[in-house]
């Protein structure tokens, strides 16, 4: 039982809750199998949450770094300590015009420096930001570099709320983006709604609600690991490879999907005319 589940997380559920539910279903139908999510979604956010099953979790770093797409709603002229609707709303600042907002979006394109929200899972001195914030402690989270590939205003929900479509690198905080966009417009703002519509190769069109999964049908929704890897396929018959031995091969340098007897095995890397084992994913 190895592969991925593309879960459409409900607003209100935590990412950990989703993973625990999947673990419980796996135990009922297949026994104890490791699984984990590939990129946290805040409880108040909904949408695509990839969950790795079995050896697929060895690709965590690969998929976590992939491009994410969000639909977000920002409210201007107010803020909260959590930068979302969970905190107490404090009014302050003006409501910018639609044209002003559109004119400011270009400032956030490309690689930018972003300070994560204090109410986040980012760590400082070994403790989560949200733990320190709930304890009322004063602290500053270090800025991080993220990349915004596109940032578009797509609608107006109310006179003070606007909807945006954002494509960004993994690790981007949309709540910080709402705060920083508002600051660039000379006001305050926070995120009132958030939905992730894509995470790398995982999209909302193929996502399944957690409520639709059972121990009996879980396998029907499992996405094979190799179908999500954009590498050329390579059938390897030489048993030395499976014992961890490098050997010469006439293939261009790069990463390959390795198949053994027609079955997907994992990844391998060709460097300087030699094939070396990568990750075992079967």
What features would you describe in this structure?
With 282 residues, this protein is an alpha+beta fold. The chain folds into three domains: 3-65 and 201-225, Pseudouridine synthase; 68-199, Pseudouridine synthase, CATH 3.30.2350.10; 229-280, PUA domain (Archaeosine Trna-guanine Transglycosylase, Chain: A, domain 4, Roll), CATH 2.30.130.10. The protein contains five helices and 19 strands. Strands 1, 2, 3, 4, 7, 10, 11, 12, 13 and 14 form a ten-stranded mixed β-sheet that branches. Strands 15-17-18-19-16 form a five-stranded mixed β-sheet, with no helix packed on it. It has a two-stranded antiparallel sheet with strand order 5-6. The chain has helices at 15-29, 60-64, 98-104, 129-134, 174-184, and strands at 3-9, 35-37, 45-53, 68-76, 78-79, 90-91, 110-114, 123-124, 127-128, 144-158, 161-168, 189-199, 202-203, 208-209, 233-235, 247-248, 254-260, 263-271, 274-280. The model has no long low-confidence stretch (mean pLDDT 93). Strand 12 (189-199) and strand 13 form a beta hairpin. 16% of the residues lie in helices and 38% in strands.
SSE topology:
Elements: E1 3-9, H1 15-29, E2 35-37, E3 45-53, H2 60-64, E4 68-76, E5 78-79, E6 90-91, H3 98-104, E7 110-114, E8 123-124, E9 127-128, H4 129-134, E10 144-158, E11 161-168, H5 174-184, E12 189-199, E13 202-203, E14 208-209, E15 233-235, E16 247-248, E17 254-260, E18 263-271, E19 274-280
Parallel strand pairs: 1-14, 3-12, 15-17
Antiparallel strand pairs: 1-3, 2-3, 4-11, 4-12, 5-6, 7-10, 8-9, 10-11, 12-13, 16-19, 17-18, 18-19
């Amino acid at each position: 039982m190895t592969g991925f589940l593309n879960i459409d997380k409900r607003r209100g559920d935590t990412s950990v809750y989703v993973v625990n539910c999947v673990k419980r279903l796996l135990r009922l139908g297949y026994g104890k199998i490791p699984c984990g999510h590939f990129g946290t979604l805040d409880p108040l956010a909904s949408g695509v949450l990839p969950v790795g099953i079995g050896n697929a979790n060895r690709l965590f770093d690969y998929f976590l770094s992939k491009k994410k797409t969000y639909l977000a709603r920002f409210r201007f002229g107010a803020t909260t300590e959590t930068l979302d609707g969970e905190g107490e709303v404090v009014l302050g600042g003006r409501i910018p015009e639609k044209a002003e907002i559109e004119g400011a979006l270009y400032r956030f394109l490309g690689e930018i420096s972003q300070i994560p929200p204090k109410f986040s899972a980012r760590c400082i001195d070994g403790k989560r930001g949200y733990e320190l914030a709930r304890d009322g402690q004063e602290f500053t989270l270090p800025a991080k570099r993220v990349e915004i590939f596109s940032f578009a205003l797509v609608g107006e929900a109310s006179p003070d709320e606007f909807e945006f479509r954002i494509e960004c690198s993994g690790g981007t905080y949309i709540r910080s983006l709402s705060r920083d966009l508002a600051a660039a417009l000379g006001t305050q703002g926070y995120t009132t709604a958030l939905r992730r519509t894509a995470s790398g190769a995982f999209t909302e069109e193929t996502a399944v609600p957690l409520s639709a999964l059972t121990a009996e049908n879980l396998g029907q929704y499992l996405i094979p690991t190799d179908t999500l890897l954009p590498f050329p396929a390579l059938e390897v018959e030489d048993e030395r490879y499976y014992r961890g031995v490098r050997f010469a091969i006439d293939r261009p340098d790069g990463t390959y999907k390795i198949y053994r007897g027609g079955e997907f095995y994992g990844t391998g890397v060709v460097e300087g005319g030699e094939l070396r084992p990568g990750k075992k994913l079967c």
